[in-house]
Amino acid sequence: MTKTLKLGAISIAIAIVVFALKYAAYRLTGSVAILSDALESIVNIAAAFAAFVALRVSSLPADDNHPFGHSKAEYLSAVVEGVLIVVAAIAIAHESYKDLVDPRPITTPVIGLAVVGVATAINAVWAVVLIRAGRRMRSMALVADGRHLYTDVVTSGGVIAGIALAAVTGWQILDPLLAIVVAMNILWSGWRLIRESVAGLMDEAVSPALLDEIKAVITENGGGAIQMHDLRTRHAGHRTFIEFHLVVDGGMTVSASHAICDRLEAAIRSHVPGAVVTIHVEPETKAKSSGVPVSE
């Protein structure tokens, strides 16, 4: 089992533990805000499972039907997670409205909030682990799962503060109002996740900053060539596809031009882990005025 798959499996177990803690807190307090937090944890379980399946599929090697690999499965997982977040927000809003019309008193708030606090601390630590690991391994599924957990941490913190205030002041209406705020925050999180995932499915290019870095690597390591033009990039899960045209002297041997390409590919891959590089070699008659000169 790869490291990403291990992290995905641990996420499922942690999501189940956190849901159990939050539901126990709801049973202790009767708070609809805590119930809303617990409902989001159900989504965390489903999302963690979807991420695990996506990571397993994306780790499969390329085959005849998928010559470019299966890395985009992670984006599909992130879209599913975004949709689940939106569904959770709607369910929370529904429960909040019922309690807004008929507010219920909060019982044993201290014990309940302590339990939620433990669950929130677990989520906070694991969110940091997932986001850092996901960025390091260029795994959209892990980053998405980590961001979702971070949103859960923020909303849980708000729930704890709001319920504590309601318990102190006796304003029972704060509980359902807080749950509605939680639902709105979750809805925004789901929308952002869906938008970013769709961008990946639509072959969005790398960031302008990374594109400039790739150009610099090519110009610094392209000794023997004349220029580079028509650079194109796209993300696909943990992979970055990079392709460009390299202009060389028309009299250069195939072996010499191939050596330049090998050097460029190695330099790009060392700078962009997981990069898949395609270079089209052309004679100087194909040079373009918009091309980028390379170092001699």
From TrEMBL:
> Where does this protein reside within or beyond the cell?
Cell membrane
* Biological process terms in GO annotation: intracellular zinc ion homeostasis
Q: What is the name of this protein?
A: Protein p34
Query: Can you list the GO cellular component terms from the UniProt entry?
Result: plasma membrane
InterPro entries attached to this UniProt entry: Cation_efflux (IPR002524), Cation_efflux_CTD (IPR027470), Cation_efflux_CTD_sf (IPR036837), Cation_efflux_TM (IPR058533), Cation_efflux_TMD_sf (IPR027469), CDF_Transporter (IPR050291)
Which Pfam families does the UniProt entry name for this protein? Cation_efflux, ZT_dimer
Q: Which species does this protein come from? A: Amorphus orientalis
Residues of the Cation efflux protein cytoplasmic domain: 208-284
Q: Which NCBIfam families does this chain map to?
A: CDF
Gene3D superfamilies documented for this protein: Cation efflux protein transmembrane domain (1.20.1510.10), Cation efflux protein, cytoplasmic domain (3.30.70.1350)
Residue ranges annotated for the Cation efflux protein transmembrane domain, each copy included: 10-202
Protein family:
Belongs to the cation diffusion facilitator (CDF) transporter (TC 2.A.4) family.
Where mainly located? membrane
What is a single molecular function from GO for this protein? ferrous iron transmembrane transporter activity
Q: How does it sit in the membrane?
A: Multi-pass membrane protein
Question: What are the entry keywords?
Answer: Cell membrane, Membrane, Transmembrane, Transmembrane helix, Transport
Any stretches that span the bilayer, and where are they? 7-26, 32-55, 75-94, 106-129, 149-171
